[in-house]
Amino acid sequence: MIHSLFIINSSGDVFMEKHWKSVISRSVCDYFFDEQRKVGCPEDMPPVIATPHHYLISIHRCSMFFVAVCMTEVPPLFVIEFLHRVVDTFDDYFSECTESIIKENYVVVYELLDEMLDNGFPLATESNILKELIKPPNILRTIANTVTGKSNVSSTLPSGQLSNVPWRRTGVKYTNNEAYFDVVEEVDAIIDKSGSTIFAEIQGYVDCCIKLSGMPDLTLSFMNPRLFDDVSFHPCVRFKRWESERILSFIPPDGNLRLMSYHIGSQSVVAIPIYVRHVVSLREGRLDITVGPKQTVGRTVENVVLEIPMPKCVLNCVLTPTQGKYSFDPVSRILVWDVGRIDNTRLPTIKGSITLQMGVQAADSNPNINVKFTINQLAVSGLKVNRLDMYGEKYKPFKGVKYITKAGKFQIRM
Amino acid sequence: MSNNGSYGNNRPSSGLGGSDIEYPSDPASGSFFVLHDYKKHEDLKQMLDMNKDSVKLEAMKRIIGMVAKGRDTSNLFPAVVKNVVSKNIEVKKLVYVYLVRYAEEQQDLALLSISTFQRALKDPNQLIRASALRVLSSIRVSVIVRIVMLAIRDSASDMSPYVQWNLKHAIPKLHSLDPEQKEELVLLIDTLLSDRTTLVVGSAVMAFEEVCPERIDLMHKHFRKLCNLLVDVDEWGQLIIIKIGLCYARTQLADPNLQVPPPTYYITLGFNKPVTFCYRQQTLNQQRISRALDDVTNECCPQVVMSVCRLYHHVAPRSEVGVVTKSLIRLLRSHREVQSVVLNCIASMSLSRKGLFKPHLKSFFVRSSDPTHIKLLKLEILTNLATETSISFVLREFQTYVSSTDKQFVAATIQAIGRCAANIREVTDTCLDGLVAMLSGRDEAVVAESVVVIRKLLQSQPARHKDIVGRTARLLSTVTVPQARASILWLIGEYCRLVPHIAPDVLRTIANTFTAEQDIVKLQALNLAVKLYLTNPEQTTLLCQYIFSLARYDQNYDIRDRSRFLRQFVFPITNDSSLAKHAINIFLASKPAPLLKSKFKDRECFQLGSLSHYIDTRAAGYHDLPDFPQVAPDPSVRDVPDAPVAVEAVSATQKSGHTKHSFFKLQY
Asked: Which residues form the MHD domain (chain A) (predicted)?
């Protein structure tokens, strides 16, 4: 399966390698670099590269490449999934994942990699279990270890690993028992030139932060569970209960988790909470864009950001917004207009001229607009949590639900 | 590349950096002192020999740091291996890491550590026993095969399920070290498979899959149990069980799609909790398997979804495959790399199972922010899915794509339009008109690609499109892309009878610019000359001669060769050349129209979602899926009278009050 892992930084240095079987020389990465030279940007990098004796499967995250080397047939998705899991674990341990962080913590990184994979097969990838085997570094613990001579490595078996609820530690205790639920909905849409919706769907998540003592058994119900097109749950959710009663019943892991994700679209009509009126003509060098809210049930649209990747021939943009700030990056040629919140009485506009490179024909096409926004206190699908009950424990927890609507991949064609 | 200064920060900021011991200077910068190589790492050796654990730990950390950077620290092996007896668990762990890395190179010295491992295997702490087993089996030294074998056998009867769980990797490791031990290992796996703990069985299947996947007969007894356990094992175990299930179904069950009256097994599923195969006894001898493939959540693991999808694709009755669609579509929101693999599979599935993805057509619409390879895959899928009803929709999308700034993508879009036009008769004319309109565009790449596609389309029905041939001829003065120019010349040559007035003029133009043309264009110019000479000798003989003499002295030998060869047809040396007689038949024979087909057509021989499928070549170690047996083997081999009881016992002890299981019990 996975023989070796190489981590490559943005300047093309292999700064860490780990072998789970016999050592493979890092010169195998040359094939990777060859391929990298062929494609321009890291996003275009093909995930699988076949070389005469090895297969290189890579992911690009945090501006680093994680390249796994395999010798034989292996499902590519399996390796990709594992690599992402590795990065997620690093993120979890060091709260961010950068080259310098990895270099600083290479001992922990190495121990982690050793624990996650054995003989090329995954061993323990559950972050809760890993955290008990190898304690994440923090300043307090570093000092304590220096003084007491203790180590970061646990000498006993994690309690949860063999239990029947492997995702929850036993003996959790809090003075304030709280359970918070965030219903987050992301609107994915493609709007065409004339403003009509070509494609729209909602991807929703129920994220929670649960700090409850003991072994609480929770049930969560929705007002309108019929909305869902497709749902998927955290492994702790009892699926049969959902199938028969449309109720989420679960013993939660401690801390943050994504309880469920759902999908609404294709069949139902999705409300688009924002519209953009645009007159952009590259040939005449003119740009005029207005943003306004629609179908927002009285909520304000906030954090609106318009991002326009301009074609290569655009040299500069001189614009005047009625609200917010704009910037044009002459290297990446991305025009960003940070609008902020939209005031219903005075709609934000941006106007001005675009300078083109001399002698270059303007492209026939206009660029697309990527829109970002958030709306607090609104789930655009109309989803509502009905009630949350707790069984199995005596205390009364504090409960809270929050709704947010965001733009997902929201694109407007011009 | 590893010797530059960017690795200067070798001293870790964490750990014991703050303690009061004076360390010798950083050994990692030793590469500057190559001359003093014998002294290299001397300080580390000293540190390892000290009594203080904290110093040893610091030294080990630095060594691991160097290992991580891929530097050679093998000369430290004797100093490090001594510390395997250290009581400090962190030092021990790092020594283990080092040992596994270098034991293969320093076999003799590695043997020094073996006795320590043997002692650790008897340690009361299960974590230490397990890690000793792991490291011992990772030391790839053939002398210790017997010792590892003993250790494995001891661990198999260990009381701790955690130690047994770790066996899953020890067994394949020993097998790869010494394949002769297989017999014994298989026996061991068989006993492990009969275990009642989920953890142990989950690890036994892994060893089974690695060591003896061909011994499918071992599975008979355990198959039903495995299917029931599927929910409880971790996602990596699920993958293996699904894989075994796939193999098992293909060898032991009859093809559900071939049986006319109700299949001997069918699948009922909600697609939402890990995959489970369930069996029902329907009549006395006929077994019905209902497979509850449930909840393969994306939180779980995309690969599990993919495996289930593969299972369905290869063994499920046709009517049941639909359940995987939604989950696959869901994966499209995941990371870019995952998207690429999933789209690859969908592209392949969409060829044979169009209906599945038709309702999700819009999910494959391209965004300008997608990376190019994702765009191309989406385009492929859109083309595969297009039907008479949805084509107008798809074409409108394509129209937007054509004006994209991504040239490769635009070219692919035009080809996709061509494929749609060829596949769906109703839109052929619309598409052709659209493509011809594109010819007047300013973008070279677009024009070039359009000409190529038009050529392919026209070939299937030339007579109706006389004016289009004429229009392409006019383009010769503006188009500069060689591929397109060559295509135009070929088109004129092929249909010179349709445009008798234009063709000779085209030949005149090209004769003018012949010397400046690219090779591919020159070859087609020669072709055109021959064809025109054969159909219209009065007007073109001189032109033809002129072009041939130019070609004769061309710099490229291909062109010289070709002209010499073609000359025999048109200007034969002897008068009775039999070649010249057949020239018309040879050059103006009607040619079969090219088939515009999907690149994914020939990938179907590979298992969905496998590496071979992705790279479209047979990867090392790829095994073909066995065909369904003609007659299903006796199903009674799977009968184990007490199996359901065992599973109930497990779930009862394991998850009291966990409602998931009550459902499965109902199924019996």
From this structure: 176-413
